Amino acid sequence: MCHTHDHAHEHDHHDLGEPTDAETSAALDLTIDDSELSPAQLSRRGLFRSAGILGGATALGMAGVTPAMASGDDERTGSAGGGVRTWLAGDHHIHTQYSSDAMYRVLDQVQHGAAYGLDWMVITDHGGATHSRIGVELVNPDIVAARELLPDTLVFQGLEWNIPSAEHGTVFVAPGRNEVAVLKQFETDYDGSVNGTSSSSPANEAQALAAITWLGRQVDRRRVDDALFLANHPARQGIDSPHEIRAWRDADPRIAIGFEGAPGHQAAGLPAGIGPGSARGFYAGSPGANSFPGYPVESYRTWGGFDWLTATVGGLWDSLLAEGKPWSISANSDSHSNWGDTSRRPDGSSSEQFNRDGRYGDPVYSGGINLTAGDYWPGLYSRTHVGAARRDYLAVMRGLRDGRIWVDHGRLVKTLDVTVRVRGDRGSAVPLGSTLRARRGSRVELVVRITAQDLPNWSQFVPQLNRVDLIRGTVEPGHADDQRDTFVAPDTRVVQQWDTSGRTGTYEIVHDLGRVDEPFYVRLRGTDGNRSQPGFLGAAIDPEGPAIDVVGNADPWIDLWFYTNPIWVAPTR
Fold first, then answer.
1. Mean pLDDT, all residues of the chain
2. In CA terms, which of 163, 329, 411, 412 is 20 to 30 Å from 382?
3. Every domain of the chain and the residues it spans
4. What is the rounded CA–CA span in Å between residue 94 and residue 102?
5. What is the 3-state secondary structure (H, E, C) of 424-484?
């Protein structure tokens, strides 16, 4: 592929160092003119400007508040009037016949996802030599056709990126005339499998940061209207180190926005005889040569179907949130070959044929039921709910970036809405992913509005939400600046539990969070209560967390949870 001179400059890695606290502070201080900033500081200021998060900290005089917490975005001022007009369920991790280990047509996946209640989906075939050579172009007409055939369903084109020095990740862009060109160039230049940069090394880590930075430039240059990256199954092999995750986020927080809180492959833990008899999420590994040495052996299993980095109260996800910077979670199918399906690849399918054609032939009827596959159809079990201002592509991407997200398994609840407000002031309420800026000393409260499930899920029973947990953590901006590999937040813990068993219809939980003295955040978790154990960091932190999943015996339908993104609270003078 021929590259222009302009593109060659995209590989300049001299300014990929991790930003220091001083660089960030100077970039945010609008009393300092652009001409007085160093190149690194000026780069940070440009990033904050383009992300729409510059100016809030200085204008509000909020000592110790990070740029994300100081956002002055008008759309983040409340659920009713703050950009959340509708909740749209989706899945950002789906494979098709254009992946070497999958089999379905794009339309198969989209049609099933729509039937199971999804509003948006991302097609993410595996990055690699064949996909980068011809697969990116080949799949696009199928995606365009699915958009036309199912106009009420938003279908994004993306890919599953082999992150240099790390695991996999979803990368996707807003539809447009350059969606194929940008994805193809990204994969060709930055995919770890394509370029032999998968092993752990500082040079390969820098390549991942260059990739995220490059995506941001494509948005700045208006080649695409938007682009996002989320890390997939981050703890599965233990190779996504804490400092890498922080570096991805800091490279461009408009682009790198989160990771899978719960992986796909949820059917994999069904016992042999009715399922594969493997590990839920296919999390059956152990430490390897490229694994981060600080992770314990328990991190290589799911906990209640969720990744250990998310499921551990006071763990890595909380350590990121305690820095006051956004980092979101999702729940997805990772659909390749689906449990209970009756199709197979056509005769003649082989790796040689796939490498030649860039795809497998259309699936055919198998004459039997597949009980050894580990996946579910998109929407059948896992859902990522995004609060959006309207039903369109850019609104979904904006909702994801703003952190207006909650996730659930097995349709545990029908609807969920969470806000934090100044006590007695309904107009001050802010939704998930936002920051409530409240006068120091004022009282604030959490409002949780739940509609209990009254319809059977796709396993033909009506799930029951039996408990809701409130998790709270102190925010200490910069606490990890000199310890980028920390994965604990010692001040985060479960502070309240509500018994919701037997509740029906729509009901509210209103909880006094006390007076605002220092920055903090809250997030929620809910469960059917079937499987619990003290959290990994102990009962004093988490008395009834999800239980570690047993390899070969982890029925996902009797272990249902929901998780929400956080809401931050920051005092003003």
1. 89
2. 163
3. 86-388, 414-571
4. 10
5. CCHHHCEECCCEEEEECCCEEEEEEEEEECCCCCCCCCCCCCCEEEEEEEECCCCCCCCCC
Closest residue by Cα to residue 159 from 172, 146, 145, 168: 172
Give yes or no for a contact between 325 and 435, defined as CB atoms under 8 angstroms apart. Answer: no
Task: Report CA-CA distances (Å) from 398 to 160, 259, 387, 414, 513.
Answer: 20, 16, 9, 23, 28
Q: 162-203: per-residue pLDDT in tens?
A: 999 999 999 999 999 999 999 999 999 999 999 999 999 999
Helix (H, G, I), strand (E, B) or coil at 51: helix
DSSP secondary structure letters along 152-197? TSEEEEEEEEE-TTS-EEEEEE-SSTTHHHHHHHHHHHH-HHHHT-
Could you tell me where the beta strands, DSSP code E, fall in 25-167? 86-94, 120-126, 154-162
Which H or E element spans position 508? strand 506-515
Are the beta carbons of 109 and 378 closer than 8 angstroms? yes
Which residues are paired to 437 by β-bridges? 570
φ, ψ dihedrals at 562, nearest 5° = -125, 150
Residue 22 has pLDDT above 60, yes or no: no
Topology classification of domain 414-571: Immunoglobulin-like (2.60.40)
Backbone angles phi and psi of 212, in degrees to 5: -65, -40
Mark residue 13 as left, alpha or beta (left: phi above 0; alpha: psi -120 to 50; beta: remaining).
Answer: alpha
